[in-house]
Automatic annotation (TrEMBL):
Parts forming coiled coils: none
Organism: Triangularia verruculosa
Topology relative to the membrane: Multi-pass membrane protein
Start-end of Low complexity biased regions: 18-29
Region (Disordered): 1-29
Biased composition (Polar residues): 8-17
Descriptive protein name: FIT family protein scs3
GO molecular function: ATP binding; ATP:ADP adenylyltransferase activity; coenzyme A diphosphatase activity
Domain ATP adenylyltransferase C-terminal, residue spans: 510-633
Pfam families on file: Ap4A_phos_N, ATP_transf, FIT
Keyword line: Endoplasmic reticulum, Membrane, Transmembrane, Transmembrane helix
Major subcellular location class: endoplasmic reticulum
Keyword Transmembrane: yes
SUPFAM superfamilies named in the record: HIT-like
Amino acid sequence: MDSPPLPSSSRVHISSETTTRTAPPRNNPLLPTPTELVLLSIYPALLLFGTLFAVLSPDVSASTYDPLTQSHDQGSLAPSYFARKNNLFNVLFVKRGWGWITFSFFLFVFTHPALRTTAQKSRATVRWAVVTAWWVFVTQWFFGPAIIDRGFRFTGGKCQVKMAEIAEADVEDIGVKEVFTAAACKSAGGRWSGGHDISGHVFLLVLGSCFLLQEVGWVVGRWVRYVKEERSVVMPDGAVRRAIVEVDRAERYRQEQEGTARRSVLEALGHGGKVAIAVVGLCAWMLLMTAIYFHTWFEKSTMAASPDKMPLKPPLPTNLPSLVKTAFTNAVASKDVNFYPTQVTILNVNSIPFQLRFSPSLANKPKAPVPVVNISHSAPQAPKKEFFNPFAAPLPQMLITAVGSPPSHNLVLNKFAIVPEHFILSTVSFKQQTDLLEADDLAAAWACIDAYKQERKELYVFFNSGGHSGASQPHRHLQLLPVENMRDGLGEGEWDVLAKGFLDQDIRERLPFKVFAAGIEETKGDGEGLRRVYLELYNLACEAVLGKDAGVQTEGEARISYNLAMTMTTMVVVPRLAEGGVVRDENGQEVGKLALNGTVLAGTALVKSQAEWDALRGDPDQVREVLGRIGLPNRAKI
């Protein structure tokens, strides 16, 4: 039987003269082919471009890098949507990356006409299984902890568990074996510290996209005859041979006979190939975003992260709300704490429910003497009453608990309480109220908030700094109010802490004064992370008050008056230009003054006279006008 004619591209013309045909040299089986080398060079190019962009971009370089999250992510202050770890591409694509890679790979394998036989599909599946096993071994499980976790431990890393937990149990009790992996460490309430921690996201993006390029690229490239080269392999006998690409020869021959073999790459990809290339493109884009917004250059170039040892939140008693309640009840009974009952009403300020309280007995509150510096020596001075510092050595009946080991702060009751269980976080050693807050101040405050959260309660923290802020004591202290008690006298759902909504632009725009707010959940209570957010907000406030030439301040005495507020999710700074404003009755006569401190960020105010109470209830617009004068005016929506 005659054999069918060979395809025209394969015909050999024989002449009477001897002709020597030289085959193209084989590629080294241990090295990438020229095409593979070009594709592989894309990865370091992306990392280099991303790093240069991060250095040269004013938005990125102005945003503080946070080693806690290994990113420029600063909540609402993030330099880009992609700098946030909760962006949809990160949540829906990167965190489920191997699922997308697997889906696109099998869609290509089972739909592309170049892979028609069961043997071809089986070999492709085996290759996928090998690469998937490698991904699992590195990131998920390797006969116990994954290679990532083992490498971290072998390079000196460890899981830091909260000191409070260690104090309550022996090391064996907290289960060292159970915190061998990153996931277990996180669930145990600790954090990886030290060591060398491979970046799982970079590993996934590079491995997955490279695998898809290999599987789709070689098949489609050879099928449409755009790629001439082939990989070489070492045979069992040691000989080097060209690998046979997964293309159905019979199908190719049929197409050549019909004249349809040559087609565009886009057509040759098919539906599965197009999906696979889209996944590769997303991998490249997210790798670029990682290069710009996440990790340092060393971490990115080695596909690893090496976070410094980071402080955890200070230990606090697990029953802090109960301790505060008991201490307050006992101190009121012994008259060590003066509690002033109030009346309350809700005023509408630009569609924001604003709480106004009235406490006539508070007008008789004794005032602490102001320290006076003697600058004249020409005449003898009358003896001055010594300035009383209630935080220097708290009385036992006022002290709730010490914070830290050794103690850096004390939790003490507020001597003059309007809200039940009002307590204070003060530094053990004297530090100026007007100086910028430190990392341990913010970490201790957040630890108190978290302790209340564990009991399904809320805590509002505020700080007054400067002459216009409502500050009354020079010894550094933050004030803490149980939100449940701030609602005393109000119906359910009638009022909530205003600061909790400041991440909503609509609420910020309705305020009569300008605020600067950011989310703090990503910090997980770490003092350094909280302080970075605090400094971002404080410096934005300084720039708004002093102008763009204000510069960046990180230490020393604050240059402006301001209030700070903290909830579990939000930190807020408001620059202050005045402590308050006058209150007038219906005849326009001045009857008092509305003074505001950090509770203004919760949406509360306090008056001490009946005339003020009546005037503000009768004309709530006065509250809005005063609010518009205490800080930078805002173009509030009415």
